[in-house]
Design brief:
Blueprint (H helix, E strand, L loop, with lengths): L6 E5 L9 H11 L3 E4 L6 H18 L2 E5 L2 H7 L3 E4 L6 H8 L4 E6 L2 H10 L3 E5 L15 H11 L4 E4 L7 H5 L5 E4 L1 H4 L4 H14 L1
Parallel strand pairs: 1-2, 1-8, 2-3, 3-4, 4-5, 5-6, 6-7, 7-8
Helix pairs in contact: 1-2, 1-9, 2-3
Length: 208
């Protein structure tokens, strides 16, 4: 199983149209991302699979962890390092049967009960949020904030990634909760210089 580093970048071609998933991955590799997740809920499966295969090869070459959002089938086809599953996706236990113990499975949690459930079901890490207001995805719940993040970190034994509205202006506060890492998307992809922003985030994450 690949190592779970602290800086986790999620690709997205809906919030920006300048870069493809593969182009985002190339930027992320050079700028120091530890984990790259391909997230695409709209493109046809074949097109997602094509990009996933290319990104998987790129990440293997540079020893970076590659995760597919939602799609266990595409994770298998592309030989990604793992998959991230939300509440409406294939259950963690069923995904484990398909992927085996050498692949990473992440789970989404919006509260302590969901985080404990993901942990009990065998997730390797949890994405918890959203921490701050975000426009990257529609979120019916209120932002969780730093205090609730700290509580989750103290009660969950597997790595926790904070997600939602995280950027250079608040990453230090996030990391000083002793959370394992931070997942970012909009703050990087919508910036004028994604590589520079990602490098800055890496410095701030590892400097806390």
């Amino acid at each position: 199983m690949k190592k779970l580093g602290r800086l986790y970048l999620i690709t997205d071609t809906e919030i920006q149209k300048k870069y493809s998933h593969y182009e985002i991955a190339r930027i992320a590799v050079k700028a120091g991302a530890d984990v790259i997740q391909l997230r695409d809920k709209n493109k046809p499966s074949g097109l997602i699979a094509e990009e996933a295969i290319k990104i998987s090869r790129l990440c293997k070459k540079h020893n970076i962890t590659f995760i597919i959002n939602d799609r266990v089938d595409i994770a298998m086809v592309s030989d990604a390092d793992g998959v991230h599953l939300g509440r409406t996706d294939l259950p963690i236990r069923e995904a484990r049967k398909l992927l085996g113990n050498r692949k990473i499975i992440g789970g989404t949690a919006h509260n302590l009960a969901e985080a404990l459930s993901c942990q009990a079901l065998g997730a390797d890490y949890i994405g918890y949020g959203h921490i701050y207001p975000t426009k990257t995805k529609f979120k019916p719940e209120k932002p969780k904030g730093i205090k609730k993040l700290s509580e989750i970190v103290k009660k969950i034994k597997i790595p926790v990634y904070a997600i939602g509205g995280i950027g250079p202006e608040n990453i230090t506060d996030v990391m000083c909760t002793e959370v394992h890492g931070a997942a970012v998307a909009g703050s990087v992809l919508k910036s004028s210089d994604p590589a520079k922003t990602l490098k800055n985030l890496r410095k701030l994450i590892y400097g806390c």
